[in-house]
Amino acid sequence: MSDNGINRRRLLVAGALTGAAGAAGAVTLHDGERGADPRTYSGTMPWRGGAADAPPIAEGGTGYTFFNALEQAFLEPALDRLIPPDPAGPSATQANVHIFIDRQLAGPYGRGDHYFLGGPWPKGVAEQGYQSRLSPAQVYRLTIPAIEGHVRGAYNGKLFKDLAVEDQDKVLKSLESGDAKLDSADGKMFFTMFLQNAMEGYFSDPIYGGNKDMGAWKMIGFPGAHYDYREWVGRHNERVPYPPVSIKGRPGWSET
Amino acid sequence: MATRLPSVDAVLVGFGWTGAIMGQQFCDAGLNVVALERGVWRDTPTEFAPTFAQDELRYMWRHHLFQNVADDTLTIRNNTDQQALPMRRLGSFLLGTGVGSGGAHWNGQIWRFLPSDLKAYSHNLERYGKAAVTANDMTVQDYPVSWEELEPHYDTFEKLCGTSGKAGNLNGKIQDGGNPFEGPRSAEYPNPPLAWPASPAMFAEAAKKLGYKPFPHPTGNVSKAYVNPLGMQLGECTYCGFCEKFGCGNYSKASPQTTILPYLMAKKNFTLRTECEVLKVETTSDGKHATGVTYVNSAGEEFFQPADMVILSAYILHNVRLMLLSNIGKPYDPKTGEGVVGKNYAYQTMGSVNVFYKDKIMNPFIGAGALASVIDEFNGDNFDHSGLGFIGGGYIASMTTGGRPIEMIYTPDGTPKWGMEWKKAAAQNYLRSSLISCHGSVMAHRGNYLDLDPTYRDSLGRPMLRMTFDFTDNERKMSAYMVDKAAEVGLAMDGASGIKKNYRKGSWNVVPYQTTHNTGGAITGDNPKTSVVNKYLQSWDVSNLFVMGAGAFPQNAGYNPTGTLAALAYMAADKIKSDYLKNPGPLVQA
Q1: Which of B63, B65, B405 sits opposite A220 (nearest CB)?
Q2: CB 3.0–4.6 Å: which of A27, A92, A166, B119 could bond A83 by disulfide?
Q3: Per-residue pLDDT for A15 more than 60?
Q4: What is the pTM of this model?
Q5: Does A87 reach chain B within 8 Å, measured CB to CB?
Q6: Which residues in chain B are closer than 8 Å to A81, comparing Cβ atoms?
Q7: Domain spans of chain B, in order of start
């Protein structure tokens, strides 16, 4: 429906990169990381027509690329306890939050590209924040089986997905509070990351695979990636009537 | 071995706000200048295009424009009894990197400090006595700079940025609608204030009812098209709500990119090298003269860049670390109180009040980085602190920076963080709530400082910087006082059905975002025994080394730092041009 704009942008980026090879002072597109080529600029404003540091678009489809079957069986019911279905808006899985987290963990975020993970790793105090040696992908991979092990022990060999929703909530609350003692995993640390990732998937731009049809934005009344509210800034206590728009447009905007 | 490069008049280490300011000032004076930036080139059309800049996940939560802690971080602890551990993920502050650095993703809040902020020690001593300035092991000091000296340089920066606001004190005459507490200004702001969406307008009305004098937040989000004194053009802000933590795609936010770089980059006597990390300031064997800097580029090649002047214009944490790594100045020792480099690290005390409405639509997504109505009755020493048990203060503002939903959904007290109850509260309150910020000072304390970590090293093998910091009762009492005052205004807002108070309690925690206003460690003063640089930001030990930025603040005031650090940079540039170039050497006799 609206992939044309994105493909065009990707082509522009590819063209800019190809064209950069022979041009002095060319802009190197990057992902905010170190490791771009050193460059020298003098006597001119660097300018590359048509180049853009466009966002990374998540792989399409609704199949998993990161989570295995056991992890999927925990992930989906757990997400729908964090954000349950109701008439006001989609549940987490209805909004494809599970797909969002899957794509995130398969990519740079999951690898911990923006975490410092070097040692040594003493425990520290809460004020010192994240002190694990694990990347987010490793946290999920190690913790979900440990949670299922804890559930099996506490609920007669059942899996999380087979618990009554009240018991599922109890398990999640005991992870949140740190009361659940897991074998070789930190349930509280996992829960903090899991809840954050769930909110990210629910409310981020749909280009990352979650927030399907911008359902979460519709629920709260956020118009999304608009860029101009000048005519609305002085109109107080009025609903802005625009339907939400994503970075890749909205239904009806683009040629299909 | 490092390759030796041809010598230049000045080398700039870091290319954000102060690097761009000094580069422009020096190049216009005919100097040959090289800037070394460890990050990449960044410009509006390629990096912040309005077709993709409004992306909360990528910029805020995946840190696309911020320093990557995987490459470089620091260690943190609350006190010397703890072992400092690495900041493994950005949280409390969001460090910049790349051309423009924090100046590209800042809010655009352009404040002047109060005249009494510059005399925090002597002013409070005189009014409240010795105990008030020494309680909680406070090590508060005066700036060696007067309001009258600094004022013209504030004006220069405001005009560079097209600052939008309303003067409150024009040449000593109090002006209606402005901040009546500000020091006398020589000129009105170059642009009128931004328009107020619902929350700032309602806050201003409530504040007036309570007898306060609300005024528009001075902002580098420009209210109309503007051409600055360098000929750079800015466009009218569109209130898109993706400003703080984002680059502006609309040329509406003052940044090095929009206000200086097109002018400076065209100069033949200016060279910028990106992906070049400075390792060390090199000095003569007596340690009294800088010969240049050694740096390594991303291809792993090492260079020595000789220079007549070395300007440290990176972020304060990097400037201080570079001084320590280069053995310049005596490191501060909190046990003895001796030494200066790393001394008086300070931060900002952030509190807030959420206001909820049953049926008012606030449209929080209509925002800009520095769009607010403000009261200044409880900032600095604008109120009588007798018997309150603290000094300092801050401004109270109805800030509307945007309504980015991962970060900015506010729910009433007692709402769970997930589940059906959370979901209903999120759906009900997103459009029907607003935020009042309490932006408070942090005084200097003996135990808050920066030094080199004994254990952790960066990817280049150098010791990380170690930050030892905590709030004290001075800050906690101030936060409680300010939040309670803010709550009174919140409750008086038309249609308010409830509030939630968020005090700054307990110890400093690196996890929740607070603010990127780290200050001190390379403080300015009038005595080499108690300060790192003189009033012209010139090192007392190495007279051809100048250290820019908020590292110069002896303690932090209740305002955002950029206006003051830019004014200090312009003052230093003026003095270097008028005196130092003719007669290099100490500009202030110790």
Answers
A1: B405
A2: A92
A3: no
A4: 0.95
A5: no
A6: 418-419
A7: 3-580
